[in-house]
Amino acid sequence: MTASKAYQSAMQDADKQTAWHEHDRVINEIVIQLAADHIEFFKQFMDNAIFRKWVSHRNFSATYEKPKNTF
User: Fold this and answer.
1) For a surface tag, which of 14, 15, 28, 52 has the fewest beta carbons within 10 Å of its beta carbon?
2) Distance (Å, rounded) from C-alpha 5 to C-alpha 7?
3) pTM for this one?
4) What is the DSSP string of the chain?
5) Which candidate, 60, 71, 69, 70, places its Cα nearest to that of 4?
6) Tens of pLDDT, residue by residue, the chain (71 residues)
7) CA gap 36, 24 in Å, rounded
8) Cβ atoms within 10 Å of 15's Cβ, excluding its own
9) How far apart are CA 69 and CA 12, in angstroms?
10) Among residues 50, 60, 9, which one has the least CA distance to residue 30?
Protein backbone atom coordinates (compact mmCIF):
# COMPACT_ATOMS: atom_id res chain seq x y z
CA MET A 1 0.00 0.00 0.00
CA THR A 2 2.64 2.55 0.89
CA ALA A 3 4.33 1.71 -2.41
CA SER A 4 1.61 3.70 -4.18
CA LYS A 5 3.20 6.98 -5.19
CA ALA A 6 -0.18 8.71 -5.24
CA TYR A 7 -0.94 7.56 -1.69
CA GLN A 8 2.54 8.57 -0.50
CA SER A 9 2.08 11.97 -2.09
CA ALA A 10 -1.34 12.39 -0.47
CA MET A 11 0.14 11.53 2.93
CA GLN A 12 2.86 14.15 2.50
CA ASP A 13 1.07 16.94 0.67
CA ALA A 14 -2.60 16.70 1.60
CA ASP A 15 -4.81 16.50 4.63
CA LYS A 16 -5.78 13.22 6.27
CA GLN A 17 -9.18 13.14 4.51
CA THR A 18 -7.56 13.39 1.07
CA ALA A 19 -5.05 10.70 2.01
CA TRP A 20 -7.95 8.51 3.15
CA HIS A 21 -9.69 8.87 -0.24
CA GLU A 22 -6.49 8.04 -2.11
CA HIS A 23 -5.94 5.06 0.21
CA ASP A 24 -9.42 3.72 -0.57
CA ARG A 25 -8.88 4.13 -4.30
CA VAL A 26 -5.62 2.19 -4.12
CA ILE A 27 -6.96 -0.55 -1.85
CA ASN A 28 -9.86 -1.13 -4.25
CA GLU A 29 -7.40 -1.54 -7.12
CA ILE A 30 -5.37 -4.03 -5.08
CA VAL A 31 -8.42 -6.07 -4.14
CA ILE A 32 -9.46 -6.27 -7.79
CA GLN A 33 -5.97 -7.51 -8.70
CA LEU A 34 -6.27 -10.19 -6.00
CA ALA A 35 -9.64 -11.41 -7.28
CA ALA A 36 -8.38 -14.24 -9.49
CA ASP A 37 -6.27 -15.88 -6.78
CA HIS A 38 -8.29 -14.91 -3.70
CA ILE A 39 -11.91 -15.04 -4.77
CA GLU A 40 -13.36 -15.50 -1.27
CA PHE A 41 -11.51 -12.42 0.03
CA PHE A 42 -12.64 -10.48 -3.04
CA LYS A 43 -16.27 -11.52 -2.52
CA GLN A 44 -16.18 -10.60 1.17
CA PHE A 45 -14.58 -7.23 0.43
CA MET A 46 -17.11 -6.39 -2.26
CA ASP A 47 -20.24 -7.80 -0.62
CA ASN A 48 -19.67 -7.26 3.10
CA ALA A 49 -19.53 -3.57 4.05
CA ILE A 50 -18.43 -4.33 7.61
CA PHE A 51 -15.52 -6.46 6.39
CA ARG A 52 -14.55 -3.84 3.78
CA LYS A 53 -14.59 -1.10 6.41
CA TRP A 54 -12.53 -3.22 8.81
CA VAL A 55 -9.89 -4.00 6.16
CA SER A 56 -9.73 -0.39 5.05
CA HIS A 57 -9.46 1.06 8.56
CA ARG A 58 -6.88 -1.51 9.62
CA ASN A 59 -4.74 -0.88 6.56
CA PHE A 60 -5.02 2.90 6.79
CA SER A 61 -4.03 2.81 10.47
CA ALA A 62 -1.03 0.64 9.63
CA THR A 63 0.18 2.71 6.68
CA TYR A 64 -0.80 6.34 7.22
CA GLU A 65 2.14 8.47 8.24
CA LYS A 66 1.41 11.95 9.47
CA PRO A 67 3.45 14.58 7.66
CA LYS A 68 6.53 15.58 9.60
CA ASN A 69 7.05 19.25 10.33
CA THR A 70 10.25 20.43 8.78
CA PHE A 71 11.29 23.65 10.41
Assistant:
1) 15
2) 5
3) 0.74
4) -TT-HHHHHHHHHS-HHHHHHHHHHHHHHHHHHHTTT-HHHHHHHHH-HHHHHHHHHHHHHHH--PPPP--
5) 60
6) 445 787 888 888 778 888 888 899 999 999 999 999 999 999 999 999 999 999 999 999 888 876 665 54
7) 20
8) 9
9) 10
10) 60
